[in-house]
Design goal:
Two copies of one chain form a homodimer. Chain A has 341 residues and is an alpha/beta fold. Chain A has helices at residues 2-17, 40-53, 84-96, 109-114, 117-120, 125-136, 141-154, 170-181, 194-198, 201-205, 245-254, 269-276, 314-322, 330-333; strands at 67-70, 185-193, 212-223, 229-239, 260-263, 283-288, 326-329. Chain A has a seven-stranded mixed beta sheet, sandwiched between helices. In chain A, strand 3 (212-223) and strand 4 form a beta hairpin. In chain A, helix 1 packs parallel to helix 2 (40-53) and helix 3 (84-96) crosses helix 6 (125-136). The longest helix of chain A is centred in the N-terminal third of the chain and has 16 residues, at 2-17. The first copy, chain A, is globular and about 65 Å long. The first copy, chain A, starts with a helix and ends in an 8-residue tail after the last helix. Chain A binds chain B through residues 64, 141, 194-195, 198, 208-210, 212, 216, 218-221, 224, 228-231, 238-239, 244, 247-248, 251-256, 270, 273-274, 276-277, and chain B through 64, 141, 194-195, 198, 208-210, 212, 216, 218-221, 224, 228-231, 238-239, 244, 247-248, 251-256, 270, 273-274, 276-277.
């Protein structure tokens, strides 16, 4: 199974190499991508940056069109065993419970308050939405982000027992920096909450809030007691930024098509397709979680456990192969996964 | 009446000056704003840029927060006697009529096809929406923008008989450039169609598509015959970017509050309020159309004709005075309005 997805990367690298004068150096500066093994994934990245930024290249792309989009959960940081935003929401239910005595006997809140993990693992999308709406609305975005930042400073990942900021993948942070150093603009394009990610994206990824595209609730413009204009987060979904929502929202925000896109699941499929459809040099990459020792291993196509987070089914493999997308093996392509290692 | 709104600008300038060491030079480079008369509006702009960009100023703003938002119609280019996007839509009805023989006897299309200006002047919002949906959807955004660019290259303004690109106000182009030269990011925040403005914004304003926030229709992700991912513009409003929609969408796109905002009507009121509410140095400006000779004169508060485009009622005047916003008199503050003068 391992050989199978490795083959995609090799295929992509060979395809790219065929387009180049053989004498050209295709290596990055030795310290640009230190966490990456010298394999097909690293080669695909370096080669893509070379052909798009070398003015003499027929695939040169002007800086204003160098857009690279990154899914977040499972692509730029750990999403297992549970999305960090859900952990945040559960922690908020506990924090807000004294103001809501009725929650104790009211589902889905009751399960969270009693710590019933078996029941919580069976939460439906509707249950999760109820919890998200109750914990993410009725305040200004500024107040919400202050709560998120406070949580980020104190909460710890259940397996690694470290702050979530340290759950970012070092190789992906290197790729983001490497792309920015070559005139790219890097965007997070996440199914997660836009406000949630914006609260820490500058600190964790070096990405400013205007380059975070995510699922978003409506806001309502109103006035505070001093007569000043403020916004209040409303319990109504405005953007569901996953699957087809990703290319739709990328277009809404940018009016441009990315030339590089990174994902790890079916939720990223359309973003990668849309990126590739622009023609010219394109880089599409999918992170495969195949390292149970250093991180997690899941994804049915590899005979790895299926989970409801970050699905990477056989059909996505088949599409990656057919469209020459590069699959990144955490196990083989990443020498180092976390900064704390 | 003239004296009244001039007083607002003077008040704002005095308020700003009171905050400064008197020895500081508050003039722009002599050629930065050549189309601006040396009055209170120009002084407010120059002073705002000085206090926000001088590192020793207590009101210094780091470059990443230097966000300036501009309404378009009536603020950065001519919106009278009719919004350019409506003219575009009427021209599209005529161009598409051969494919829609039923339109001849179907309102509101029939009036457009017969050139019945009296009937067209009475179009309701519903009529206009019908025409916009019929002419702006069912194609990719790329195809739509190509049509807009072609129209921009050929259509002429009914009074000035020049291409619409020349309808941009030279003083506002100067302010945009002046702000960008001082590390600001300039955004168009328009009630008009985002896709429409994006088609020409780089050419007319030097602003890239990702810095255009406008009213937007939904898009639908689908596949072309080659199996490539494409978007199709749908007849469904996603963002109504006017009035309260402006601050809501600014937050959606940027996650930041502007520190400078320019408008000309009640549709911009909330954007200016929201900008000011951030505290610290802020610049809020409203363009008053009081120059019937060189452009147009309208706005009931000045005893000028009321129109349904770009309403500037007494209540907006009162608010501008109360909140110390600067009102720009086209007649007195702009030495030159158009590049072709």
């Amino acid at each position: 199974m391992q050989r199978k997805y490795m083959a995609f990367g090799v295929t992509a690298a060979i395809a790219l190499c065929a387009l180049l004068p053989t004498s050209v150096r295709i290596h990055a500066q030795s310290d640009d991508l230190p966490s990456w093994a010298d394999g097909p994934a690293r080669k695909a990245i370096v080669e893509f940056v070379r052909v798009t930024t070398d003015k003499s290249s027929p695939k040169f792309v002007p800086p204003e069109d160098r857009i690279a989009t990154f899914d977040q959960d499972g692509t730029t940081w750990v999403s297992h065993p549970i999305y960090s935003q859900l952990l945040f929401a559960f922690d908020r239910v506990i924090a807000l419970a004294p103001q809501h005595p009725e929650w104790k006997s009211m589902q889905p809140f009751g399960c969270v308050l009693s710590g019933d993990k078996a029941a919580m693992s069976k939460f439906t999308m509707k249950d999760l939405e109820t919890i998200l709406m109750a914990t993410h609305t009725g305040m200004t975005p500024e107040a919400f982000q202050a709560i998120v930042r406070n949580w980020m400073a104190t909460a710890k990942h259940p397996r690694f027992n470290r702050p979530f900021a340290e759950m970012a993948y070092r190789p992906m942070l290197e790729v983001m920096r490497y792309l920015r150093d070559h005139g790219f603009k890097t965007y997070i394009v996440t199914g997660g909450g836009q406000d949630f990610v914006r609260a820490y994206a500058q600190q964790v990824y070096g990405i400013p809030s205007e380059q975070i595209i995510g699922s978003a609730l409506d806001t309502q413009y109103t006035y505070n007691k001093a007569g000043q204009g403020i916004l209040i987060k409303e319990p109504k979904v405005l953007l569901d930024n996953d699957h087809a929502g990703k290319p739709e929202d990328i277009y809404l925000f940018l009016g441009k098509r990315p030339i590089a896109a990174f994902g790890n699941s079916t939720g990223d499929r359309q973003m990668l397709e849309y990126t590739q459809a622009g023609g010219g040099a394109r880089l599409m990459m999918l992170v495969l979680h195949d390292d149970a020792v250093r991180e997690f291993a899941y994804g049915p196509a590899q005979g790895l456990p299926d989970t409801r987070i970050g699905t990477f089914p056989q059909s996505l493999y088949d599409e990656a192969k057919r469209r020459s997308w590069t699959v990144i093996s955490m196990k083989n392509d990443w020498k180092r996964i976390f900064a704390f290692e």
